[in-house]
Amino acid sequence: MQIKELEELIGAPLVERGRRQIHLTGLGEVFAERASEILRSVDELADLARSTKGPLSGRLRIGVIPTVAPYLLPELMKSIAARYPLVDARPREAITQKLIEDLVDGKLDVAIVALPVSEPSLEEVPLFEEEFVLVRPIEDAGKPVPSPDMLKQMRLLLLEEGHCFREQALSFCNISSAPPRDLMEGSSLSTLVQMVGAGIGVTLIPRMAIDIEAHRANVAVSHLADPKPTRTIGIVWRHSNPLAAQFGQIIEIIRDLGVNRQNCSEKLTSA
What we know:
By secondary structure, this protein is of the alpha/beta class.
C-alpha cells in the first residue's frame, strides 16, 4: 500500500511534502513507531514458532563489532553451517552503539560485543577474556616493553571515536577522553598495524588479531607487563527473544573459537 493510499484510508496526512524533502508529521512518527512494534511482534511470533521445532533453524541475524569480526566471523559462519545446516545466518559488522540499537529495535537476534553494555532490556553472557598486546616497529623488538605511563608519552595509534576498543586502550594508558595532540587515528586495526610497520608509532591490538594483522607488517608484538590489559567478549540478546533458550548452542561454538584463536597467536615476546 502506498503512503498516499494509507493517508486516504485513515483520513489524515502522515508526511509533510516539500519541494525537495519529505518529513513525517507528528501522526506519521507515531504511526511509523507503532508499525515497527507490530512488525517486531510478528517476528517474535515467528521466532516463538521456530523455538518449538527442536534444533536451531531459520534466520539468525548476528551482529559483531569490527575488532572481532575479521578474526572470528569466518570460522563462526563455517561452524554454524556445519552444525546447524537449517540456520540462515546473516552477519552484520558495526560499532557497539549501532549493534545495541539494532538489537533493541528487533533488527538483530544476537550481537558479539565487549562487555558490559549496560542495557536493561538485554541479556549479557561472557564468552572469553582477551588480552591486549603491544605492536611496535620491528626495530624496537629488543627494547624493554614500555609501561602505561611511558606509552602515554609515545605516538599512540588508535581507532577513531565510536570504537569501544579505543576507549579501552585510552583507559589502560591513563589517557583522558581528551587525548594528546600526538595521537593518530585509523578506521581499522589493519590500518593501525601497517602504520606501525612504517615507523609512525605504536598501537594496541586484541590478541586474536595477531595472526592476521601482525604477519602483514614489519612489526614486533609483545605482551604488556602485569596486570595485563584485557577485555571481556560476550554475547547479548533481548530478554524477550523466544529463541534465547537455543542460543546456548551458538555460545558453545563462539567460546571454542575465541579460545582457539588466541591460543594460535604467534610472534609474541614477553614483557
